[in-house]
Amino acid sequence: MVTECRYEHLRRHGLRHTGPAWFADTGAQVHVLRGIAGHGSLVTTQRCPHPDVHKITAAGTALSARLSALRAPRSLPDPVVMTR
Fold first, then answer.
1. pLDDT by residue (tens digit) across 28-75?
2. 56: helix, coil or strand?
3. Cβ distance 36 to 20 under 8 Å?
4. What is the distance, to the nearest Å, from the Cα of residue 25 to the centroid of all Cα atoms in its chain?
5. Confidence of residue 14 (pLDDT cuts 50, 70, 90)
6. Burial class of 19 by CB neighbour count within 10 A (0 to 12, 13 to 18, 19+)
7. Are 31 and 10 within 8 A, CB to CB?
8. From residue 58, how far is each of 24, 61, 65 by CA, in Å?
9. pLDDT attached to residue 8
């Protein structure tokens, strides 16, 4: 199949590692990845996913937005005007 798809440069071990990483990028949960890869241990599966630079950048942007929202000054209520 690898030859038919013209991916001769890929090796079986690389595919076992890269496949779960690609699935992780789609948001698949680790226990699902474990089943796909056929790993006996979740620890083994957890070593596979390596987020790409776009995922890392997006996570950093989301964190920055969250922190900015927390630091933003809250609006104060209008002062109460007392009249006689």
1. 888 898 888 888 888 888 877 666 778 778 888 999 998 888 876 666
2. helix
3. yes
4. 6
5. low
6. middle
7. no
8. 15, 5, 11
9. 67
End-to-end CA distance of the chain: 89
Output phi, psi for 44, to 5 deg. Answer: -60, -45
- Lowest-confidence range among 9-13, 16-20, 67-71? 9-13
Q: How far apart are CA 24 and CA 28, in angstroms?
A: 5
Report how far residue 62's alpha carbon sits from residue 54's, in angstroms, rounded to the nearest whole number. 12
* Residue 66, SS3 per DSSP: helix
Q: Distance between CA 84 and CA 78 in Å, rounded?
A: 19
Whether the CB-CB separation of 36 and 21 falls below 8 Å is answered with no
Structure tokens given for 7: 């991916």
